């Protein structure tokens, strides 16, 4: 069997029939961004909630939209359960509500939209991204070749199809996931070295639109990010991703988060 892609264990969930019908749970402990960070990696919850929703539909359906809310911090020491409610099942679209439960409390809720893929194509024409300057040369390196110490500089890690593990190659709709940005003082100090105070961020809402079901997790993506509004202790971040290889827009997302000074009251 081929070696697993590093992201695959993070996405994997298994049925938990002892808890209930359409309930899934994580196979490995939740990933935490590092020392000094409260809670678990938010992207862990997003990725596995999307995977649980995917498992409740036919393999011909792929995720096209996600709306989610973080309610409480998760803990790395307790099992997590994903309760999937089948809100709608149509010929072309399906909708799932995923309630993420830990220690009896709902910590994260996601509404996941899935669309049946047309094997013959049938998509409207699209315009590829045209580079104003030549793209960087990666010298044959893929995203998984980047040292772990450098990943705190990445704002998002986006996963679609993986091609490195047997069983994931043939089915382009096997899983979809979004990994959220790591939180923590170290990252905030790196991003805002000139700021007079250290900040803490906590995600509140994520809205994601998936544009390309065939995009891969083992290829480079180009990211464009901007912040269009901040106030009342909240900030809105908008981001889009293109495939470096094809120039095609693969994902758009909007994130609202709480912003507090380091020495302020709890979020």
From TrEMBL:
This is Acyl-CoA thioesterase II. It comes from the Eukaryota. GO terms for cellular component: peroxisomal matrix. Residues 196-259 form the Acyl-CoA thioesterase-like C-terminal domain. Residues 29-112 form the Acyl-CoA thioesterase-like N-terminal HotDog domain. CDD domains: Thioesterase_II_repeat1, Thioesterase_II_repeat2. One of its GO terms (biological process) is acyl-CoA metabolic process. It holds the Pfam family 4HBT_3C. Keywords: Hydrolase. Belongs to the C/M/P thioester hydrolase family. One of its GO terms (molecular function) is fatty acyl-CoA hydrolase activity.
């Amino acid at each position: 069997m081929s070696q697993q892609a590093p992201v695959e264990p993070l996405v994997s969930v298994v049925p938990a029939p002892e808890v209930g019908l359409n309930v899934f749970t994580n196979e490995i402990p939740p990933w935490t961004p590092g020392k000094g960070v409260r809670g678990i990696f938010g992207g862990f919850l997003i990725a596995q909630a999307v995977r649980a929703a995917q498992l409740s539909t036919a393999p011909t359906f792929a995720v096209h939209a996600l709306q989610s809310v973080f309610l409480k911090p998760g803990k790395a020491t307790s099992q997590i359960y994903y309760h999937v409610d089948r809100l709608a099942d149509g010929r072309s679209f399906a909708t799932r509500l995923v309630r993420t439960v830990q220690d009896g409390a709902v910590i994260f809720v996601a509404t996941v939209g899935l669309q049946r893929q047309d094997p013959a194509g049938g998509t409207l024409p699209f315009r590829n991204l045209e580079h104003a300057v030549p793209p960087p040369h990666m010298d044959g390196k893929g995203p998984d070749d980047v040292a772990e110490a450098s990943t705190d500089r990445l704002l998002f890690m986006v996963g679609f199809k993986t091609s490195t593990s047997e069983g994931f190659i043939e089915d382009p709709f096997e899983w979809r996931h979004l990994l959220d940005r790591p939180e923590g003082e170290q990252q905030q100090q790196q991003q805002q070295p000139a700021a007079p105070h250290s900040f803490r961020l906590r995600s509140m809402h994520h809205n994601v639109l998936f544009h390309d079901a065939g995009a891969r997790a083992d290829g480079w993506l180009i990211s464009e990010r901007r912040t269009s509004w901040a106030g009342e202790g909240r900030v809105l971040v908008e981001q889009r991703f293109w495939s470096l290889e094809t120039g095609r827009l693969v994902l758009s997302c909007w994130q609202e988060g709480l912003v507090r000074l380091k020495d302020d009251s709890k979020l």
